[in-house]
Design a protein that fits this description.
The structure is a single chain. The protein has a single domain, classed as P-loop containing nucleotide triphosphate hydrolases (Rossmann fold, 3-Layer(aba) Sandwich). Helix content is 55%, strand content 13%. The protein contains 8 helices and 5 strands. It has a 5-stranded parallel beta sheet, with helices on both faces. It is globular, with a radius of gyration of 16 Å. The chain starts with a strand and ends in an 8-residue tail after the last helix. InterPro entries: Cyt_kin_arch (IPR011892), Cytidylate_kinase_dom (IPR011994), P-loop_NTPase (IPR027417). It is found in: Cytoplasm. One of its GO terms (molecular function) is CMP kinase activity.
C-alpha cells in the first residue's frame, strides 16, 4: 500500500507530475486543491482564498479530505502540504522552480494578465506560508522533510516523473529495481 507525497508551490508541476507518476504506477492520483474545492462550491478561486484567510476551517477541510484519500494506499498525493500532512509516505518529494518560471507556466496554463498573475502568485506564496505556520506550524519554505528535492526547471515533467518513480522503486525494493545502476 504505497504512498508518494509530492509538494511544491503553484507552477512547479505538482499536478502534472503527480498525475504522470500515478498513471505510470497504476496508482490513484490525489490532487484535491483549493481550485477543486472552489469549483465544487461554485465560486471563483480568489473568493475561496479570501474566505480561507478569514477562517482556517477551509484549510482543515481540504487537508483532512486529501490526507484521508491518500491514506487509502497506492496513491500519489500532490499538494502544497502533501509531504508534511502524510509523514508516513514512502517517498516525499518537493518540486521547486524560480518565481519567474512558475509565473510563466501559470500564464501559459491559464492566460490572463501576466503582471497580475505574478502579483497574485507572490502574494499567494506569502499568504500560504503564513497560514500554514499559523494552522499547523509548518514552514513551507523548509523542505528538510523531503526525501528528494527536484528543480523542475532542469527536466521536463516526464523526466521528473521518471526520477520520482526510480527513487520510489529504489526506496521500496533496493537499487536493483530502479533504473539507476
Amino acid at each position: 500500500m504505497g504512498i508518494i507525497a509530492i509538494s511544491g508551490k503553484s507552477g512547479c508541476g505538482n499536478t502534472t507530475v503527480s498525475r504522470m507518476v500515478a498513471d505510470r504506477l497504476g496508482y490513484t492520483p490525489v490532487n484535491y486543491t483549493f481550485r477543486t474545492m472552489a469549483a465544487e462550491m461554485g465560486m471563483p478561486l480568489e473568493e475561496l482564498f479570501r474566505k480561507a484567510q478569514e477562517s482556517l476551517e477551509y484549510d482543515r477541510k481540504l487537508d483532512e479530505h486529501q490526507t484521508m484519500l491518500a491514506r487509502k494506499g497506492n496513491t500519489v498525493i500532490g499538494s502544497r502540504l502533501a509531504m508534511w500532512m502524510v509523514p508516513e509516505a514512502d517517498l516525499k518529494v518537493y518540486l521547486k522552480a524560480s518565481p519567474s518560471v512558475r509565473v510563466s507556466r501559470i500564464f501559459a496554463r491559464e492566460g490572463g494578465d501576466r503582471k497580475e498573475i505574478e502579483r497574485f502568485t507572490l502574494e499567494r506564496d506569502a499568504r500560504d506560508r503564513q497560514r500554514y505556520l499559523a494552522l499547523y506550524n509548518i514552514d513551507i519554505d523548509d523542505v528538510s522533510v523531503a526525501h528528494l528535492v527536484i528543480d523542475t526547471e532542469r527536466w521536463s515533467a516526464s523526466q521528473v516523473a521518471d526520477i520520482i518513480i526510480d527513487a520510489y522503486n529504489i526506496s521500496l525494493y533496493g537499487e536493483q529495481h530502479g533504473k539507476i545502476r
